[in-house]
Amino acid sequence: MDIVEGVLDGIEAKYHRLIADIKAKQAEAKIENEKKEFEEAYENLKKSSKEMAEELQRKTISAWEKLEKRAQDILKSS
Fold first, then answer.
1. Could you give the 3-state DSSP secondary structure of residue 71?
2. Is pLDDT of 1 > 90?
């Protein structure tokens, strides 16, 4: 009977190790997935920030050109 109990204890210990390994793999996969999501969000933020900066630059140039034209028109009419 001691042999059977020893075998059962060994099987139970192996079962618990396998469960722990599975949980560790699941945690690693979850961390990797969250890392990918963060990286995608970061890249989208960088792209969005760049687009906003480019739009601001276009609007600034346009406003400056309008201001220069207005100044030239005022000088011509004087």
1. helix
2. no
